[in-house]
């Protein structure tokens, strides 16, 4: 059976809408990879599909390691009333599969971004006053080069979107296949407008995007890495780069047909 993304990347809008169809009370779960235009997307999609929930943790609470706090947040979400029609958070694939098992019919969506731009933006965001704990972060990680030395920050898209077992000896081809089989939609920040219009059509509220939240373009331009640093980012995020390249190629091929179908 063809997956929703198989239909989408064949340029088959009607087939994707049918394969990814949500029940009226079904859950749309947005797995929010940091710095992939997810804040804007989450705000607009949640407004289309109420009631919604944000699966998050208290960054100031250090009583448990972060990932354990996130596990608790997911458990708390699943112990709730279960009436949400949209939910999102900086969760992982294991959490998404756990939620989907508990809430059959859940459709999981996500976004990717060029790894160089995403890594640069993530470092800037964590060092900015908008992020809890930014002062400690800036003291410990004062430069983008020092950020690249943190092993837990490498391949962050893959770490969120793939099961941990696939990350021990990652096979990019197998990773892309898992993503295409598991997710109802995976968009690109670089094709945000088209991706948003497809999702809005999917949710029965066809329209273009209107928000751009949590954007730090001025600082990003000032911190644009040189060629040597770009090479370092790609080397330390090789799996993310391979995944992004595969999906970028798929979007390049499908976009003309999808644009025509939306216009029709």
Structure description:
The chain is α/β, with parallel strands linked by helices and 264 residues long. The protein is built from 14 helices and five strands. The chain has helices at 4-9, 13-19, 38-48, 66-78, 93-102, 115-126, 134-140, 144-148, 156-161, 172-182, 192-202, 217-222, 227-236, 238-263, and strands at residues 28-31, 52-54, 86-89, 107-112, 185-188. Helix 4 links the parallel strand 2 and strand 3. The radius of gyration is 18 Å and the shape is globular. The mean pLDDT is 92.
Secondary-structure blueprint:
Layout: H1 4-9, H2 13-19, E1 28-31, H3 38-48, E2 52-54, H4 66-78, E3 86-89, H5 93-102, E4 107-112, H6 115-126, H7 134-140, H8 144-148, H9 156-161, H10 172-182, E5 185-188, H11 192-202, H12 217-222, H13 227-236, H14 238-263
Parallel strand pairs: 1-3, 1-4, 2-3, 4-5
Helix pairs in contact: 10-14, 11-14
Number of strands: 5
Radius of gyration: 18 Å
What structural category arises from helix and sheet content? alpha/beta
Task: Assign a percent range to the helix content.
Answer: 40-55%
Beta percentage is 5-15%
Q: In whole angstroms, how far apart are the ends? A: 27 Å
SSE pattern: HHEHEHEHEHHHHHEHHHH
Outline = globular
- Strand arrangement within the widest β-sheet reads 2-3-1-4-5
**What is the number of helices?**
14
Mean pLDDT: 92
Q: How would you characterize the largest beta sheet?
A: 5 strands, parallel
Stretches where pLDDT is under 50 for at least 5 consecutive residues are none
């Amino acid at each position: 059976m063809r997956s929703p993304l198989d239909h989408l990347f064949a340029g088959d809008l009607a087939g994707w809408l049918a394969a990814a169809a949500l029940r009226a009370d079904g859950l749309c779960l947005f797995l929010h990879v940091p710095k992939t235009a997810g804040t804007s997307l989450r705000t607009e999609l949640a407004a289309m599909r109420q009631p919604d929930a944000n699966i998050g943790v208290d960054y100031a609470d250090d009583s448990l390691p972060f990932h354990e706090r996130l596990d608790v947040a997911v458990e708390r979400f699943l112990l709730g009333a279960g009436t949400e029609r949209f939910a999102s958070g900086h969760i992982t694939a294991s959490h998404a599969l756990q939620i989907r098992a508990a809430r059959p019919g859940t459709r999981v969506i996500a976004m990717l971004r060029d790894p160089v731009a995403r890594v640069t933006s993530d470092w800037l965001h964590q060092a900015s006053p908008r992020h809890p704990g930014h002062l400690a972060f800036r003291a410990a990680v004062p430069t983008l080069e020092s950020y690249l030395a943190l092993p837990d920050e490498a391949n962050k898209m893959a770490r969120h979107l793939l099961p941990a077992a696939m990350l021990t000896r990652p096979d990019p081809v197998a990773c892309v296949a898992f993503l295409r089989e598991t997710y109802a939609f995976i968009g690109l920040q670089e094709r945000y407008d088209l991706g948003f219009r497809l999702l809005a059509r999917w949710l029965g509220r066809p329209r273009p995007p209107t928000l751009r939240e949590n954007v730090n373009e001025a600082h990003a331009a000032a911190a644009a890495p040189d060629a040597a640093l770009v090479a370092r980012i790609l080397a330390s995020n090789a799996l993310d780069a391979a995944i992004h390249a595969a999906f970028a190629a798929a979007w390049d091929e499908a976009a003309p047909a999808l644009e025509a179908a939306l216009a029709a």
